[in-house]
Amino acid sequence: MPGLQVPLEHVLMMAAALFIAGLVGLMVRRNIIFILMSLEVMLNASALAFVAAGAHWGQADGQIIFMLILTVAAAEVSVGLGLVLLLQRRFKTLDMDNANRLRD
Amino acid sequence: MLDFLWLIPLLPLASAALLMVTAGSLPRPLIAACGAGSVGLAALCVLLTGLSWAHDPVPRQMELWTWMQVGTLRPTIGFYLDGLTLVMMSVITGVGFLIHLYSTEFMEEDESLSRYFAYMNLFVAAMLILVMADNLLFLYLGWEGVGLCSYLLVGFWYRDPVNGAAARKAFVVTRIGDTAMALGLLLLFTELGTLDIQQLAELAQGKWQPGDTTIVLATALLLGGAVGKSAQLPLHTWLPDAMAGPTPVSALIHAATMVTAGVYLIARNHELFLLAPPTLLAVAVLGLLTLLLAAFTALNQHDIKRILAYSTISQIGYMFLGLGVGAWSAGIFHLVTHAFFKALLFLAAGAVIHCLHHEHNIFRMGGLRTRLPVAFWSFLIGSAALAALPFTSGFYSKDQILLAAYQWPQIGPWLWAGGLLGALLTAIYSFRLVFIVFFGEAQTEPDRQPGWRMALPLSILCVASIVGGWISLPLAEALPATQSGHPAAAVEWISIAIPVIGVSLAYLIFLGRQLDLSALVNSGLGQRLHQFWYSGWRMDALYNWLWVRPYQFTARLLKDEPVDLAYNGVVHTSVALHHLLSNLQTGRMRWYASTMVGGLIVLLAVLARAG
Hints:
- The structure holds 2 protein chains of 2 kinds.
- By secondary structure, chain A is mostly helical.
- Chain A has helices at residues 8-28, 32-57, 61-91.
- In chain A, helix 1 (8-28) runs antiparallel to helix 2 and helix 2 packs antiparallel against helix 3 (61-91).
- Chain B has 2 domains: 2-541, no CATH class; 560-610.
- A two-stranded antiparallel ribbon of chain B has the order 1-2.
- Chain B has helices at 7-22, 28-55, 83-106, 113-132, 136-154, 161-192, 197-207, 213-229, 238-241, 247-256, 261-268, 270-274, 277-298, 304-324, 328-355, 373-386, 393-407, 412-438, 452-467, 489-511, 518-522, 524-534, 539-558, 565-584, 589-610, and strands at 60-66, 76-81.
- The N and C termini of chain B lie far apart (108 Å).
- Helix content of chain B is 72%, strand content 2%.
- In chain B, helix 2 packs parallel to helix 4, helix 4 runs antiparallel to helix 5 and helix 16 (373-386) runs antiparallel to helix 18 (412-438).
């Protein structure tokens, strides 16, 4: 394969770092928009792992899964943004911790 | 009239029902007429029954209907009429009517006159059922009925908590005896398969030899019931407290009728008791101990009604003594004469209390001889009969009992000597009462005189207390004869002399003051003895310590239900766990995510270690 060869391990570590960054963002952020962004980061981290693995083994499966994840992410964002709008309208806030009425 | 036997208990029962249903809305004269009249009519019916029975004096049984049928248990609502029943019925309705008549004046100003007569009539009905029943279960119905009425009437003035406590005590203490009696009935039924009194007697004689353990046990249990109801040792403590009720109640229930139910029970089942000599011995010994103990106590009381109460306990002791030594008819004879003179004494005491602003303490009376002549003569005659002075009714009946005791084999003379000591004490305490209340200096002025409705019953009972000893009761068929035989003349003379000596002693001590006992009484020992006897031989304190306090202690322990601790523990633990889990559901999305991550990490760590 021509061009710069990046070792698989580095890519996987990069993906893991991205995933953890997303996860931490999910846990510590209270603004729902940031939570959605963290989710995107996590999805893309896994997509990156798939692409790297597909390139490493020389198979198309990785790219196909990447396409799938892209679709899922788009769907998720559309639903998520709908939720954001509803949250904003009903509670006049974007803070997730205020939306805890399901407790009871 | 014999076919209308059921009318006799029905009349007071119907009156009681009427008074209960109308609940005091009838005009007061009508209430009194209804209450006293129904018992009067019943007395008339008893008289007619007695007259027609006298033509053909054979026992007869009258079955109205079957009460219930459960397996072989088939108690009936049925009556049994023989001499003993007739005697008891006459006493209950006769003395009962006089007391009801007296009550119409005594209770005239009471606000709950209707309630009073309803209870009194119910009592008379229950007592009649008790003596007329032909089987022990029906008898037990009457037995519990009179217990209930006793409770209701002792606590009649229920606004004072003391009266309520006295009523509860009377109820609970007699209930101990009643439980024993119920066990006795169960034992007799399991052994003999019937509760009909006549059948029981026949079957028992075929099944057991005298002294067999089972019959001794069964009669001992019946004796337990009799001891409770008749206020004998060791269950006598309720009777003095039962004086909290109105005085006519004490006269009717706690002197003339209900407390003698135990005597009747033993006499009615004498065939069973004859098969159990140890029980009979116990009857005699208990009677003797009770009569002595109560006589000593009566000598030291201040309250006129308590003196009479202890004297009642003592006289019932004589009846038990008579039954125990086989003087069956003498025991019943004493029951009858005692009903006359003790009802007389109570009613006279009631007249004194009524006319002296409810004063009970004899030392605040005095000099009433000329001020209340009716009460004085009644009391004098009643006390003479109680002390068994010659030619009064009490003399004949007590004399018969003492002579029978003397002739009883083995410990007979000892029983006789004890009975004589009791007779001496009886004479002293009864005339102590007369001398202190009616002689000496006046302390309190009476504010009224008894009217004719009080005076008439008193006069009739005065006559009955004197001539009652000459009546011959139709008991020959119903009860076994006393062993005949004449004891030495000295024995008879002694039993005649003892009451006279007692009265003379009482005169010397309490009226003439020739015999000065103040040094003896005021000494340390004398004071302590007086306190000891005044408290009734500390029996109440003993029972308090022995039963009441441990019971209350246990009740306090069990109040918080320690047994349920384990079950409640399970409940509390699951509730706590539930709260723990439900607290996890915070509704916060970030918290859920974090716990998911935490769980995932733990899971991965475990898998990594396992891999």
